[in-house]
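Quick illustration, no need to memorize.
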Amino acid sequence: MAMEINKNNIDELLAGELPVVIDFWAEWCGPCRMIAPVVEELAAEYEGKVVIGKCDVEENDEITMKYGVRNIPTIIFIKGGQVVDKQIGACQKGALVEKIEKLL
C-alpha cells in the first residue's frame, strides 16, 4: 500500500537508502482518482525496493511548493534526495514502471 507522505515523514524518507516516488493528489481530482489504483499496485510490486507514497496537496502546502507542483496528479521520482524525473497528469502503468525501473 502506498504510504501517506507528509511534513512529519518526508525528511526521513528522503534520507533513506531507497528511491522515493511521490504521487501529489487531491480528493476532488478526477484524474488523481483514476491513477490511484495504479499507484497502489506499484507500491505493492516495488515494496522493499522503492518507497511509493501519496501526498495530499490540500494538507501539505510546504511539500507541494518545495517541488513546484502546479498541476495534479504529478508524480515525482527522487533518487539520492534529488528529483530525477516527473510525470504530470494521468498516464498508463507502463510509463510509470519505466520511470521506476530507471531509479533502480
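The chain has one domain: 3-103.
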